[in-house]
Amino acid sequence: MADTTTPTPSLEELQHWTWVLGRAQQMMLENGFDLMGAKPTANPYAAMFDPQAAMQASAGFWADTMQLWQRFLDPAHAQTFEETPEQAKDRRFKAPQWREQPMFDFLRQSYFVVADHLLKGVDALEGVEPRQKEQIRFATKGFIDAISPANFPATNPQVLERIVETKGESLLKGLQNMLGDLAKGQITQTDAHAFEVGRNIATTPGKVVKRTPLYELIQYTPVTEQVYRTPLIIFPPWINRFYILDLSPEKSLIRWAVEQGFTVFVVSWKSADATMKDVVWEDYVERGQIDAIDTVRALLGVEGVHAVGYCVAGTTLAGTLAVLAAREQADKVRSATFFTAQVDFSEAGDLRMFVDDDQLALIRSLGSEGYLDGRYMAATFNLLRGRDLIWNYVTNNYLMGQDYVPFDLLHWNSDVTNLPSAWHLSYLTDFYRDNKLVTPGALSIGGTPVDLARITTPAYVQAGREDHIAPAASVWKLTHHFKGPLRFVLAGSGHIAGVVNPPAAGKYQHWINDAKVDSLDAFLAGASEIKGSWWPDWAVWLASGDPEQVDATTARIPGNGPLPALEDAPGSYVKAR
Predict the structure, then answer these.
(1) Which of 6, 49, 462, 518 is deepest in the core (most CB within 10 A)?
(2) Residue 476 known to be catalytic
């Protein structure tokens, strides 16, 4: 049997790698000295190269590098490499080859040393505005993810082994995968043929009962003999397709809500095209949410609805509530639920890194036809978690040539929607950049000033503890602006899995604290951790707002009321590409 152990590198090879590391450090320092004379206002990166700071950083880097070489050359007498908890559970290096084979173990540890010192260099910056520092750190983290040895065939032991095992076939398959993605302009994350809307996802029975140039209104078929009198209308974000809430039957929040006895309506937004070039935020409030709420009220003959807003639709729901309150029509919404929604964008997370003059100019150029291609937003969200949503697929599907794994959530994530460019630009400037929503009267809808302090509607606010799109601390700020009764629930996981967590799965947990507290930290300090989904808690809260039930007949059945059924759910807009 052939010896498969990796031979100890020769002295010549060690000298070569020493030269590579030394040359890299020299290049950084030389470039730094060239920039030292520049003013920080002209180049924020110049502050990274203060001579004293550079010397200190260099000394620390080389001290760690010498320890690394000692561990490689004389492991019996060297100090043990101490991994951080994050490094120890880094999935990129979970394969045993990264620790058992000396050369790859050296590459792994080298990567961690370089990454650590790059981030320390950013943290030590002086003379840089906090926002610039955040941008530099974000870019540095992206660079660190990109240069991982796992991302290159010559430095990834699993890739090399697979090339040998498949006699090069994996390289051809990976090349085919990469060329296919280049042709469509988007990274493939799952088997594109495994799922079809209306066949094995988005299959909860219902009917489209209204269609406008902006949305389709879907009413779902009841499965209980009686239903709660107050219906539930869900506004998903128009940045994505609505069926994130109606994936496979066992994951569907929509199906689950129907089974709890609610008459459920969902708005399916139209993916933007050139006809929507003039659509702005006001349209999503007036012609979207308020119009849909009035339609449901008239159809069922009820005074008010339970309204749900997810992400950007939750931000918009806050505006809708403020407008209704100002018009003395607050009773149209009996309760409001917010899934991972923000109203105060002062700490809105890494998405703020994409709101500067250059990015706004790029969006203007990309949206010259009146709409922004959904692949742009998909790439933006992928960059927020580049390690998982970009480089993971580069390694597995390009370098390893592996087949795509069927996954309904990733199918949805790749099913992009176009956005009205006028709305998108105003959203980034008015909300993320200028944070106008929390300033009374700074925005108006149909001539009605928006003032969140006028909202007294009972509210249920859900946040995800690991949410990178709408950070929990940012969502929490919503509790400072509403004046009515409010229940805050912190869910385990993030922006998607924290919301789509059916009780039957028994996954994650959520935290509840009934005490009145002023901060998220205080909420957590006194919170009770409850295993599993928060959905049952929400259903109880909804029912308590109006426990009365009625027979599931006449207009409660889609198409049997004043609005005829136009077509079966999930409708046409969700299928339009």
Answers:
(1) 462
(2) no
